[in-house]
Amino acid sequence: MSISPILQAKNISLLTKIHQNHLLDNISFDVNEGEKIALIGGNGAGKSTLLKVLNHLCTSSKGDLYFRGKLVHHWDVLKFRRQVMLIPQESKLLGMNVKSALSYPLQLQSLSEKEIQTRLIYCLQEFNFIESWLEKRENELSLGQKQLVAIARAIIMQPSVLLLDEPTSALDKGNAHWLREKLQVWNEEKKMTIIVINHDLEWVKNFAQRVIWLDKGRIKKDLSAKLVDWEMIEKHLLILNQEMNIDEDF
């Protein structure tokens, strides 16, 4: 019996409004439940844009996106985004303290106070947050702490799909390793589907089962992580990013 994909992108294209340039160009792929996928590519390849489309934060110019076999625009947008959670590289607490930032999305679902407290305690334990953190506001947190709170805010919603944009960019090596291990646990225990962008190829190598390589808004390669020539990709991306930096200087 074939297993239906949890997410399907079919011929997705996204054009800039002014010059009609392709940010994404005819993107098609299926995502099965429980997969761990890394999006790689040079600066400007379309990785972050693709995550926004998968979260329905951006609407594609062409093509269709399906979630659990149903067109995304047939889903209630809030219910969909609770199931397919995007964690951008820079997340804001919107003036709230940590406790409010974590509990507010749950209150919007009209969950009982008991359930909210249960999930808060779970987050404290999972993320090793100390109790005093709950009263801290955004300006009292380091960049790394804010990044972890943003991830906790997504996990507390119990999503089916987690979309992470550079989740370790502000984390030290120890916390980056801890997060990778935690994501592995959530993937295995909860069958959580995870799609991640991370410039740290060593981190990606130790996490992903599958790699989708984007180049100029197109899929260059889509293959098992076991088949990836990591040394070749690292050299290629280094050259691409150097060329991008040169272009920006002129």
TrEMBL record:
InterPro entries: AAA+_ATPase, ABC_transporter-like_ATP-bd, ABC_transporter-like_CS, ABC_transpr_CbiO/EcfA_su, P-loop_NTPase. PROSITE patterns: ABC_TRANSPORTER_1, ABC_TRANSPORTER_2. One of its GO terms (cellular component) is membrane. Residues 7-241 form the ABC transporter domain. The keyword Methyltransferase does not apply. It comes from the Bacteria. Keywords: ATP-binding, Nucleotide-binding, Transport. Coiled coil: none annotated. GO terms for molecular function: ATP binding; ATP hydrolysis activity; transmembrane transporter activity. This is Phosphonate-transporting ATPase. It comes from Cyanobacterium aponinum (strain PCC 10605).
